[in-house]
Amino acid sequence: MDTEVKKIMKKHYDNPAVAKHYAKERFSGRRLRTHKKEEKMVERFLKIVGKNESILDLPCGTGRFQKQLSEYTFSLTEMDFSSAMLKEAKENMTHNFPQEWHHKINFFEGSVFDIPFSENEFDLVFSMRLYHHFSEEEQRLKILHELKRVSRKWIIISFYNKHSYLHARRVFKEKYKNRPSYRFSITIEQFKKEVKQTGLELHTFSSRARYFSEQTLALLSVPVSFEKLD
Ligand SMILES: C[S@@+](CC[C@H](N)C(=O)[O-])C[C@H]1O[C@@H](n2cnc3c(N)ncnc32)[C@H](O)[C@@H]1O
């Protein structure tokens, strides 16, 4: 099932029209509010972790968070498996960033299931709006393992919370319209179980409104081990 979803997602996000729409319209108009609220949640976590040497933004999409993340690091790596989304992210940087910031941003094409970086490469790995695309625990665990492998300290990751009003509303709408959205929610308990199974530590959650919003952000840390020390 998830292999099929992976293919559908790749085809969807590789479409330049989809990428353009995501960059210009997905979070504009009345949805700008959603973006602003997400930015606020992210800011809260970034303040907790403070400025870091290096951040990996995976998937970066069209670079919605690259400016905000850049303020908290000396080196930002923007990575996604869609070249069309990456192209938009690069354009976003060229048009909206001060020239003196350009040198600290790198772009990489690749999959979250096989991240082309070595262990402990980044201080912080940021993963927004990806986890909820996978319905199978096995796939989600693979993602968490890969994020943990390349992170030295922190992971900020979003998932969809099943115990929320917006989840119930979305499921109802999808049934009514008979159209799948390829978004899958899990309970907070399930998320905690997956984090524990991966050997990560959960610090805190944040959502726009508890029991209302489906979108939830978690701050995780990688336990310090002797192998992880320089
Ligand atoms: C909903 S967008 C989120 C983008 C960005 N994080 C944001 O919040 O605006 C999902 C992104 O995940 C990327 N993606 C999906 N599956 C992926 C995979 N296996 N590896 C890397 N990127 C993936 C897509 O290309 C797309 O850019």
Which helices and strands appear, and what pairs or packs with what?
Elements: H1 2-13, H2 16-24, H3 32-49, E1 52-57, H4 66-70, E2 73-80, H5 83-96, E3 105-109, E4 122-127, H6 137-150, E5 151-160, H7 165-177, H8 188-198, E6 201-207, E7 215-221
Parallel strand pairs: 1-2, 1-4, 2-3, 4-5
Antiparallel strand pairs: 5-7, 6-7
Helix pairs in contact: 2-5, 6-8
The structure holds S-adenosylmethionine (SAM).
What does this structure look like?
- With 230 residues, the protein is an alpha/beta fold.
- The protein has one domain (2-212): Rossmann fold (3-Layer(aba) Sandwich).
- Helices cover 42% and strands 21% of the residues.
- It contains eight helices and seven strands.
- Strands 3-2-1-4-5-7-6 form a seven-stranded mixed β-sheet, sandwiched between helices.
- α2 (16-24) runs parallel beside α5.
- The longest helix has 18 residues, at 32-49.
- It is globular.
- 36% of the residues are buried.
- The model has no long low-confidence stretch (mean pLDDT 90).
- The protein binds S-adenosylmethionine (SAM).
- S-adenosylmethionine (SAM) binds next to α1.
Question: What is the tally of helical segments?
Answer: 8
CATH top level class name:
Alpha Beta
Backbone CA Rg: 17 Å
Number of domain units: 1
